[in-house]
Amino acid sequence: MVFNSDIFLFAFLPVVFALFWLLREKQARYILLTISGYIFYGYWDWRFCFLMLFSSLVSFGSGLMIQRAQDQKTKRAWMIGTICVDLALLGFFKYYNFFAESLHAVDPAIAPPLLNIILPIGISFYTFHTISYVVDVAAGRVRATSNIFEYLTYVSLFSQLVAGPIVRFRQIEADLERIDKPPQTDQMALGVGFFAVGLIKKVVIADTIARLVDPMLANHGDLSMLGAWVAALGYTFQLYFDFSGYSDMAVGLGYLFGIRIPQNFNAPYKALGIGDFWRRWHISLSSWLRDYLYISLGGNRKGPTRTNVNLVIVMLLGGLWHGANWTFVIWGAYHGILLVIDRALQPWLKRWPPLLYRWGTFLLVIVGWVFFRSESLSMALDWLGKMVGIGTGNGDIPQTLMVLCVLCFVAVNTLPETWDIRFPKTVRWAPVYALSLLLAYLFMNGANSTFLYYQF
């Protein structure tokens, strides 16, 4: 089920919303949100609900055992065991065939057989939820909950289940504990406002760009030099408006149920340097990788060389997290190297004019998105080659796409991020919100396209 589908907008969401606020007891609301989360997830393929439930029960039980353990060695053993189970599930479903195919390319004799594996949507996200929970319990940053439905609500919360943001239990624990409170007018206004802006970003901007960019990239061999750049720029904006749109809708849905989901984007294309970009783009992932991987590897505490190695390792794994393809690995390595260079040249780069520094960062990000979007290394190299004038074709460039790219460039450099908008909270603004949702819905045209990050 997707947020921009009729079944979600006119059936699932109204029913769950009405039942949630009709129920008054905390436990009843936990149970409702848990059931609705599994219905939302199972609408795609009900069989994988059991996989998510298994992962949730393992981490829930482990959290309790860690909480009760009397020594750090036992706590660490439970934590490592749970992480191994979670990563084994993620590794099998997401990466088994990737490594099997890679070994086949090297030596078929040593390669395991390829399997017909369906990748469960959202597994990368809820796996990071469960891992962060047991690590935080073991570190004493959060106390393990003894309420199974409170925990299942956290993992299966439909607003952020399949494409993030990656929410840590401690970030919404207070809201979960107060989930039986009455509705707040300001939160309702914020919820509808965020959801309306996110829906507009997705169906009006991102999907319109996609209908123009996708045919160009399906025939990337015909791209001219200008066409290659326009396609790269178009995808750069498509990805941002698609994923930030989803994140805004997730935040809005959270507010509608009294849960404050953290910010995931902060005007990333205004970044001054690659380090600043990763403090602004997919904030929940970059902060997760920093807190649970980079710092565990030693962070910047073991000298500049080790720091640089840690940065590259983290970004390599971050790239692989996005998908089982060498294009994602190279994209991660590319950003890891850029982070190393960015750190080394900071004293010099800070003397650059801010506008030049921003646009230089933006250009480097665009180049990286070529690997991110490409279906294979050969496609990425062909696309990049055409961007520098090698092997160019004479394919058409949609004028509408060029206009949209200009408008989007102006928008991301001048308009505020959704979190900086002060949504009116009075009832008289309800017709404005309703009209915004209606206009966005009319743009959907029955397409109900999925969000780009569903594949991760």
From TrEMBL:
<feature type="transmembrane region" description="Helical">
    <location>
        <begin position="222"/>
        <end position="241"/>
    </location>
</feature>
<keyword id="KW-1133">Transmembrane helix</keyword>
<protein>
    <submittedName>
        <fullName>Alginate O-acetylase AlgI</fullName>
    </submittedName>
</protein>
<feature type="transmembrane region" description="Helical">
    <location>
        <begin position="6"/>
        <end position="23"/>
    </location>
</feature>
<keyword id="KW-0812">Transmembrane</keyword>
<feature type="transmembrane region" description="Helical">
    <location>
        <begin position="427"/>
        <end position="444"/>
    </location>
</feature>
<keyword id="KW-0012">Acyltransferase</keyword>
<keyword id="KW-1003">Cell membrane</keyword>
<dbReference type="InterPro" id="IPR051085">
    <property type="entry name" value="MB_O-acyltransferase"/>
</dbReference>
<keyword id="KW-0614">Plasmid</keyword>
<dbReference type="InterPro" id="IPR004299">
    <property type="entry name" value="MBOAT_fam"/>
</dbReference>
<keyword id="KW-0808">Transferase</keyword>
<keyword id="KW-0472">Membrane</keyword>
<comment type="similarity">
    <text>Belongs to the membrane-bound acyltransferase family.</text>
</comment>
<feature type="transmembrane region" description="Helical">
    <location>
        <begin position="78"/>
        <end position="97"/>
    </location>
</feature>
<feature type="transmembrane region" description="Helical">
    <location>
        <begin position="117"/>
        <end position="139"/>
    </location>
</feature>
<feature type="transmembrane region" description="Helical">
    <location>
        <begin position="50"/>
        <end position="66"/>
    </location>
</feature>
<feature type="transmembrane region" description="Helical">
    <location>
        <begin position="355"/>
        <end position="372"/>
    </location>
</feature>
<dbReference type="InterPro" id="IPR028362">
    <property type="entry name" value="AlgI"/>
</dbReference>
<feature type="transmembrane region" description="Helical">
    <location>
        <begin position="189"/>
        <end position="210"/>
    </location>
</feature>
<dbReference type="Pfam" id="PF03062">
    <property type="entry name" value="MBOAT"/>
</dbReference>
<feature type="transmembrane region" description="Helical">
    <location>
        <begin position="311"/>
        <end position="334"/>
    </location>
</feature>
<dbReference type="InterPro" id="IPR024194">
    <property type="entry name" value="Ac/AlaTfrase_AlgI/DltB"/>
</dbReference>
